[in-house]
Amino acid sequence: MIRFIHTADIHLDTRFTGIRDESKRKQRRAEHRHCFTRIIDIAERVQPDFLLVAGDLFEQTHFSPDTINFIVRQLERVYPLPVFVVAGNHDLLVAGSPYLTWEWPSHVHIFKDGQFQSIALKDEVVIHGASATQQSGFLNLLRNYNVPQDERIHIVLFHGSEATDRRAAEQWGSWLPFTSEDILSSGADYYALGHYHSFRSIPFQQKEVKGYYPGCPEPTKLDETGPKYILKLKLEKGRPIQVEKIQVQSRQYREEIIDCDGFKDRNQILERIREFGNKDDVAKIILEGYPDPALELDLETLRESAKDWFFTVEIENRTRPDYRPDQMDNLLALRFHEQLQEAKAQGKGNSRDIQVLEEAEVLGLDALLRGHIRGYEI
């Protein structure tokens, strides 16, 4: 039996563009480093047989030399523990990459090719790794790649998207795509994946688990809610994979929905937002429902009022003023509403056109029913 740690999508030096306050962005980048330090702390304490990093360790487009030196120094702490690293789409293996130009510790094995290469660890384990490059980014490297069928444990390590999971592929983009059939046919004992930022097993919706995406250990975007993990695994040839999820993140990212049906003024919204307050959390508040047409939403005012209740908060408006037909007694307004509904039906699902028509309907009904047009943030 072998024991190892699998992590991916750490994204050191990410910009945290979803956070408006620059000082908070800097704090999150510092917390991101602390997360990586905790991963190394765990590896130092657990003493697994090796550590796998499945891509996107840092941001190639705006990394700092200080960050690469930090990574190297942290990895030196676990010498002589073997560490295997592949590049992902955010830390691509390109000319000038720190993977090619930095001096890495001797126990850190970076796969410096866009095709699978194999490294044998003693006589018991073989790591098959491929890094993401500009040339290989949209190739299916796994198709027709077959590992030897012998007594050794074979682990495939790369950063790619399981195309069978279409929703995830659309969310995170296609990179080194592969299918469930590719997993089942290539014959490895474990697939150590990176790219998708939430924990999930592979193959997609298959009973027999052949590997995992650990997800990002520290959230980087507002929609990366819930607990985040690295994985501690035990693997024995021909036996089910044993996995333990270890939470290492500094902060929780949360998404909360507020139903604004019948709300008359902004303070009612603020009262609900305050109920969700936690000064350690990054929160996204989504406003839904049909508030009174007199309620004018000023998202900047709401954000400013709520900022001290969270580490940082974003507010998204999905409400619609309560201009439902059964609430109208103005015949001209009813006819205007009917015409807009007909126009949306003819839009044949074009989301942008429908959005424009919905905004036009709100502004038109404002003029017809209230005598003035609201000013609000879209």
Overview of this protein structure:
The structure is a single chain. The mean pLDDT is 91. This protein has helices spanning 22-46, 65-76, 98-101, 166-172, 180-186, 266-275, 299-306, 331-345, 351-370; strands at 2-7, 50-54, 83-86, 108-110, 117-121, 125-129, 153-159, 190-194, 200-202, 211-213, 229-235, 242-247, 253-259, 278-288, 310-317. It is 29% helix and 22% strand. The strands form 3 sheets. The chain has a 6-stranded mixed beta sheet, with no helix packed on it. By secondary structure, the protein is α/β, with parallel strands linked by helices. The longest helix has 25 residues, at 22-46. It folds into 2 domains: 2-247, Metallo-dependent phosphatases (Purple Acid Phosphatase, chain A, domain 2, 4-Layer Sandwich), CATH 3.60.21.10; 253-370, no CATH class. The chain has 9 helices and 15 strands. Helix 1 (22-46) packs parallel to helix 2 (65-76).
Give me some keywords for this one:
single chain, 378 residues, alpha/beta, Purple Acid Phosphatase, chain A, domain 2, 2 domains, six-stranded mixed sheet, 22% strand
Number of DSSP strands? 15
Regions with little confidence, pLDDT below 50 for 5+ residues: none
Task: Say what the CATH topology of the largest domain is.
Answer: Purple Acid Phosphatase, chain A, domain 2
Q: What is the subunit arrangement here?
A: single chain
CA radius of gyration: 25 Å
- The helix-strand sequence is EHEHEHEEEEHHEEEEEEHEHEHH
Mean pLDDT: 91
Distance between the termini: 56 Å
CATH top level class name of the largest domain: Alpha Beta
The CATH architecture of the largest domain: 4-Layer Sandwich
Helices, by number, come to 9
Widest β-sheet, arrangement of strands: 4-3-2-1-11-12
CATH superfamily of the largest domain: Metallo-dependent phosphatases
Helicity range: 25-40%
Estimate the strand proportion.
15-25%
Give the overall form.
Answer: elongated
